[in-house]
Amino acid sequence: MTTLLQLDDIRATAQRIQPYINRTPLYHWQDTWVDEHVLDGELHLKLEFLQRTGSFKARGAVNNILTRDDAERGKGVTAVSAGNHAIAVAYAAKTLGVSAKVVMHRGANPARVAKCRGFGAEIILVDDMAQAFPTMEEIAATEGRSIIHPFEGQATMQGTGTIGLEIAESITDLDAVVVAIGGGGLIAGVGAALKALQPSLTLYGVEPTGASGMSQSLSCGRFLDKVEVNTIADSMGAPLHCAESFAVCQQVVDEIVLLDDDALCRGMIVAFDQLKFSLEAAGSAVLAALAGPLKGRLRGKRTAAILCGSNIDEASW
Q1: Structure-derived torsion over alpha carbons of residues 8, 50, 17, 43, reported in degrees to the nearest 10
Q2: Which of 2, 56, 183, 232 could connect to 238 by a Cys-Cys bridge, CB 3.0–4.6 Å?
Q3: Which H/E stretch holds residue 232?
Q4: Where is the Tryptophan synthase beta chain-like PALP domain (predicted)?
Q5: Are residues 267 and 279 in the same domain?
Q6: How many contiguous H segments (helices) and E segments (strands) does the chain have?
Q7: What does the pLDDT read at residue 4?
Q8: Distances (CA, A) of 69 to 72, 76, 156, 251, 265
Q9: Greatest pairwise CA separation for the chain in angstroms
């Protein structure tokens, strides 16, 4: 399949960002939980929560800065995030010697805010996430900083595409891949790489019922520029969708399943009880999907699922 994201560009990105990110493990999970929920299929978990900064976001953040010229880097970067992207941009900026100013919600997880500040970023707190993107754009305009978008743009999606590349290089003949959806940049990049290499696989997205903007966008054939968000999975609560990532999702996403907050919490419990992983709701959403709407549907299939983030503290968990 040919998509708006090119495989050669994703491969070049993998080489470019390699010194600054981890090639995360792919774990073939075999136990009674898998037997019950995937039946006689295989389940391979991409442990992307072991990525530097605790989520997949580091890949796109690093690639964004590395693809800027020296003059742009000298003016610094700005971003908006519920936490994971903020941490990733702060990490990438510090690692590559660039100034970062990040917009976050005032109610963001304190551990995430502290982690972001620990990498040296300046944090701007807003009361409403609807204000966050305009605030970021104002910072970019007045200070000349480059915007690192959390899910939109070639550089961001090329970064997430390297996850799909690693999966495809490790496992041949996949039947299905399950990916959480926030803004859509993760599933767009992963899907573009995987469908280029293994075009017959089925790509499932997972969204909260309280943040189902991509499902709605795909249903009506246009990206929504405003999404009502009410979910515990704040990393999946994108307040809007954007043209380029939406267009790639139209090309690669086969189906999206929805989960309520109770199901998302059960996914966190599965990760902890069965795997001893302490994941945020977005990070374990794929497990919730396998225990819920996808249970039994992947019988006999070779499936990969991405555990995408673990930036949560004990009190919030």
Answers
A1: -10
A2: 183
A3: none
A4: 18-309
A5: yes
A6: 13, 10
A7: 84
A8: 5, 11, 16, 31, 43
A9: 57
- Spell out the residues 6+ positions from residue 2 whose beta carbon is closer than 8 angstroms to its own: 196
In a domain, residue 167? The reply is: yes
Interatomic CA distance for residues 148 and 151, integer angstroms: 9
* Phi, psi for 302 (deg, rounded to 5): -95, 110
pLDDT of 183 reads 95
CA distances from 261 to 85, 207, 241, 267, 275 (A): 22, 10, 21, 10, 21
Q: Say whether both 91 and 226 belong to one domain.
A: no
Both 74 and 32 in one domain: the answer is no
pLDDT at 2: 67
Averaged over successive runs of 10 residues, the pLDDT of the chain (317 residues) comes to 87 98 98 94 97 96 97 95 91 97 89 92 89 92 96 97 97 97 97 97 98 96 93 90 96 98 97 96 97 96 96 71
Q: What is the residue type of 249?
A: C
213: its two tokens = 């903007």
* Dihedral sign, Cα of residue 7, residue 8, residue 9, residue 11: positive
Nearest alpha carbon to residue 5 among 244, 211, 229: 244
The answer to whether 21 and 58 have CB atoms below 8 angstroms apart is yes
Find tokens 């991409």 and name the residue.
Answer: 46
In whole angstroms, what is the distance from residue 212 CA to residue 227 CA? 8
pLDDT given for residue 317 in this prediction: 62
In sequence order, the β-bridge partners of residue 138 are none
How does DSSP classify residue 55? B
- How far apart are alpha carbons 256 and 226 in whole angstroms? 19
Residue 137 is part of which domain span?
Answer: 57-147
Please tell me the predicted confidence (pLDDT) of residue 170: 96
Domain boundary among 125, 147, 169: 147
Q: Which residues contact 183 (CB under 8 A, 6 or more apart)?
A: 150, 151, 152, 238, 240, 241, 242, 245
